[in-house]
Amino acid sequence: MSTARLTINLDALVTNWRNLNTKTNCxxxxxxxxxxxxxxxxxxxxxLAKAGARNFFVAIAEEGVALRRALGPGPGIxxxxxxxxxxxKLLRDFQLTPMLNSLDQMLRHFEALPGHxxxxxxxxxxxxxxxxxxxxxxxxxxxLGQNPVLLMSHLACADEPxxxxxxQQLKAFQEMTDGIxxxxxxxxxxxxxxxxxxxxxxxxxxxGLYGGRPFGDALPVVQLDLPVIQIRDLMPGxxxxxxxxxxxxxxxxxxxxxxxxxxxxxxxxxxxxIKAYAGATPCPVVGRISMDLxxxxxxxxxxxxxxxxxxxxxxxxxxxxxxxxxxxYEILTSLGARYARTYQG
Length: 345
Ligand SMILES: *Cc1c(COP(=O)(O)O)cnc(C)c1O
Hints:
Elements: E1 5-9, H1 10-21, E2 27-28, E3 30-31, H2 33-37, H3 41-51, E4 55-58, H4 61-71, E5 76-79, H5 88-93, E6 97-100, H6 103-112, E7 119-121, H7 133-145, E8 150-152, H8 165-177, E9 184-185, H9 189-192, E10 202-203, E11 222-234, E12 239-240, E13 246-247, E14 252-257, E15 275-278, E16 281-286, E17 294-297, E18 307-311, H10 317-324, H11 328-334, E19 340-344
Pyridoxal-5'-phosphate binds at residues 31, 33, 80, 154, 188-190, 204-208.
């Protein structure tokens, strides 16, 4: 079989959640938007709920529906995009809590679903989502009269601990929410690592759970094993792959494995220094990554490999991201639908 295998370690995921949880004295929720950063929101959230997570966040109402079906009644599911036109039935039938982002959303929510739980998203400077200070000042008494369950905002630069934007947004969030008797949330993974001032009542980590930076102590959660389809010998001077970008400097053995950029293994990764692992032994990826195939120099192995590993403890989503000039989030959410997925734990 030439199906590449993605192994998702739910025990490592749970350990990451627990380790992040011990960094604060507040509640630790979990962000499982984009289908759990590509790893299956239902399985991810079910494992975290068993470990004690009580609140989950998704991007849009439809993701909340899928998550509610997987989790059943009980855990809180909140929707960052708030209450959009046409969402009322889903929010009600699947007990989803919208984080309202504007006066328009607020009016829509109060009219369509009076008494239905909601939170408020405030913009503390990122200029992406949520009510700005002026808008909030104008509507906050109305909002507070309807008993929001959470006031939240989001940090733009939390992965850079010394960035002046962090204290600036903290101050803006405090000015908008101090003295209000409603639970507050400011921090995702990055903010959790900035210290107590940033924790408030609830933190919302995403990437750290899945093994990515900026949570430096994160355990890797994904392993990616690619079956070798064919191995060939090259004479010095022969080339490999599209565009002849790699030339054999000596007699070589080249293995071809079954995955490519259609599986989320970004073509630009070869701008950096990427390996494929035969057990613990790194072998250089050579030539261009094509849609379904990658070529690897296995000359120095004593035995021909049946499988080569692209994601493991040594080479994480962040390593691949650095090579491709992107972030671990994008590597995770790009991992394709063609993999055979195995869940451990
Ligand atoms: C994605 C997201 C998070 C989680 O962020 P991580 O950096 O993955 O921890 C938290 N809050 C909001 C509003 C988000 O969009």
